[in-house]
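Weekly puzzle thread! Below is a chain. First person to post its structure in token form gets bragging rights.
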Amino acid sequence: MTVAHSVQQAMKGTSWIRRMFEAGQALKQQLGEDKVFDFSLGNPILEPPPAFQQALREIADAPPPGMHRYMPNNGFLSTRRAVAAAVSEEQQLQIDADDVVMTVGAAGALHVTLHSILDPGDEVIVLAPYFVEYLFYVDVHQGKPVVIQTTDTFDLDVDAIDAAITPRTKAIIVNTPNNPTGRIYSRDQIASLAGVLAKHERQHGHPIVMMFDTPYARITYDGHRNPPLLADHPNTVICHSHSKDLGLPGERIGYLVISPRATHRELLRTACMFSNRVLGFINAPAIMQLALERSLRATVDTRDYVEARTRLTRGLAAAGYSFVEPEGAFYLFPRCPTEDDVAFTDALRAQNVLVVPGRGFGCPGHIRIAYCVDPDTITGALPHFAETMRRGRGR
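Winning reply:
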């Protein structure tokens, strides 16, 4: 059977995350679960909150008539109204239910948006370090990803973004809180970026969409939180997933929200509904929509993630690791003692510690540690992290 050349090329550069996760599975079978310390996959350990569990029971006990029939391509009206009300409160801007499209997770929302706005050869700015799938998402819709590095502290390099925008630039993907760094972009940074996009919109005569990817928006620390994301740039779309804040990665439930101030708002609404259908997502799952509608303001208890972050960062700092303190999400992105992050990852794997090399996120010289794990995993791994750092420094 013939496989497309483009797919073969993409598979060669497939996600380091999955590669390390699969290596971890093999090690666990060989050595036993308790001997392997796996930080490779951002798979939430926390169970969904009671409000979500109760919503599922209510739906199972008294299913609404017609629940399993076809629905509008943008989702149940009642669910979209609930999402619009919650997002209006969060964003301090009135959102209409028709500005909402229920999607198969944030990935579905990103695909729907890209399919709706890109012509072949159009460019999408991707900020490194990035979630690696972004590059594939843009490519699937015949776009061209343009990778721009963030600063040494993982803040937006607005000047570099400004210099990278061309007449073919149609969008920029902004992930906040960020995977893999845990960085939250400030209101000042976003406002500065919005000013640059507005300048180029006037110059080139078409909208440039700021696409916010926000699955970690409710997992934040020390009083940090995302600023209002719809406040500064009219042509903004929020792509959200409840995989993390409700502990539902296996359910793939999310939505996209179009700013009510967007240029050609009605056309974009219609395009996103169309794209949701033709991409094969059709609708977000009916039961998940209705359960979400009843538990939208709930979230997992993030105290476990706070404790995990504290335990990990203190242990790694004591061992000599250098990193930017995460403000959200559940990842740490420390520097390696050398620029060869793959070699350092291999050295950790020899100690049965599984992490992901930073080059998988477009940022060599770092490793990503997903600390959404059992506390014993962190405790057991810290001596191995310390020993690997000691050896990496030649001590």
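Puzzle host: Confirmed. Bonus trivia for everyone else. DSSP finds 13 helices and twelve strands in the chain.
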